[in-house]
Each structure stands twice: as structure tokens, then as C-alpha cells.
Known about the structure:
Elements: E1 12-16, H1 20-32, E2 37-41, H2 44-51, E3 58-62, H3 70-80, E4 90-94, H4 99-108, E5 112-115, H5 120-131, E6 137-139, E7 144-146, E8 151-152, H6 181-188
Parallel strand pairs: 1-2, 1-3, 3-4, 4-5
Antiparallel strand pairs: 6-7
Amino acid sequence: MAEDRINLEQSTVLLVDDTPQALDMLGSIFQGFGVKEQIKRPSAVEAVKLLQQRPVDLIVIDCGDPEMDGYAFTRWLRRETPAPMRYTPVILVTGHASQSKVQEGRDCGVSFVITKPLTPAVLLKRILWLAGDEREFVECETYVGPDRGVRNFGPPVGMAGRRKGDLSAHIGHAVEENMDQADIDMLLKPQRVSL
């Protein structure tokens, strides 16, 4: 597992959640990962203000902010900020992982969608995946974000795919069936297309 090591000590991570307990939990996880500079914001609106002043290396945002949800935030980041900030990886955290919500995350340009309750192991695996991600960044009239048109690349070289049973929790009442984390990963996995 030595090849799975990554040094996050010099990284700046922006954590956004309107629940103080969730922010504390995310902060503890990233502290455990060795991240020294964590910036916590209670809303996406506050995160926008911060990003107008300075860049970060990674953004982890809850999708359910009442003022500006994680989807709107990601669309703003991808379309309204200059390069290289618009390329900042975004991990969207959600308690309701219906297929339509995961697709909305994919279509607004998030790098990953992770379901609650999240575990440090899953979060670290996604960060490692992002570190080895070689997908092109697409910028066109209808989409800005990591390339979604390349299927069957799978995880970065040397990384195993997700196990189906890693996450299983139901939070609240969903309006449609929640997707399993493995299904979310499959939906967001780069896919090769033939032209």
C-alpha cells in the first residue's frame, strides 16, 4: 500500500457545510490526512467570497445548502472563475444519492459525489483517485468540468475499484431511490466513446 501514499500537508482544503457538526467531522478527517490548512465555511455563499480572494487545492461541499446548493456552487466555480481556479477538484457530499441528483452533480462539473455517512477510507480513496486522474477538462457552452465522454478508463492505474458493500445507509426520506456508492462511481467514471 506504500504506493497509495500522498502528502496532503501542504494542501489547502475548503470544507463547506451548513451543519457545524459536519464541518467538525470533515475537519477531523482532513486533520487525520495531514492537511494543515483547512478553511471551513458554513455556506456556499461564504465559500464564493473566499474563493474571490484566494485559491484552494480541493473543495468538499455538502449539496444541501439552503442559500446556494453544491450544484449551483460548482456551476459558478466552473463557469465564473478564471483558470486555474475553475479546475479545482470538487467533491460533493450528499445524503440523498438518487440517480437524478448524482447526474446533476456530474452535469454541473463535480469531480466526485460521495454519500453520507462518509468514511475516511472512501474520502481518501477519492482524493487518491483525483491525484492520479488524467481526464481532460472540458470547457464548452453546455458543460465545464472533468471529461465525462471517456468511458471504461476505470480508476487510475494501480487503484482497485470500489467494493459494492462499502457504504450502505439511508438518510431521511428520498423522493426517489438512493443509488449505491458503486453505482455513483460507475455513473461518474470516465467513458471512452468512439466518434
